[in-house]
Please model this.
Amino acid sequence: MMQRSFAGLILTASLISGPAVSAIRGASQNSDASTSARSSSTNPATTDPDYKIGPQDMLRVDVWKEPDISRIVPVRPDGKITLPLVNDVQAAGLTTTQLAAKIAEGLKKYITSPQVTVGVTEINSRRIFVNGEVARAGAFPLLPNMTVLQALSSAGGFTQFAREKKIYILRMENGKQVKYPFNYKEAVSGKNVEQNIILQGGDIIVVP
Model:
């Protein structure tokens, strides 16, 4: 009789502990997944010290012992980021080290010897755009040392209505849009080769 009771207790404990262990394992896995997700959102997308920040990139700004200022921020289309105390700061065109120094300089009015580090968590600026009278308008990956002619080739060439001598490139520089003219006829014939500029992330080529 006692043996049957003891066996029943073991069976009951087994039935209870099974779901409990599964629940604990599930909670642990969920916790690991959550930790992994948080880690992936803060891991640097690039460790290249010479990488120039571009519009639409995501940055992690850490100010030592200042959690209210530290945060992940997007680089706006105008090339700037917004942070407490320093407000708008030009980020596009700078390296992470240069931007960190610029933010630290702005924080000196409020914090003694601020220590700032900046990392790029997402690279979204490495694209160029070709619009207008081309076969395939849209966004294209920015390849190393990509020129205007190469980008136009990636877009599949011109339509019959394209004004090949009136092409221009739009680029954001210091928060302002700059227009660079490009004459396709001259470029392919070897004239004014300096107009076949190396493109930067976010450049827009317009073929009227």
Summary: The chain is about 30% helix and 25% strand.
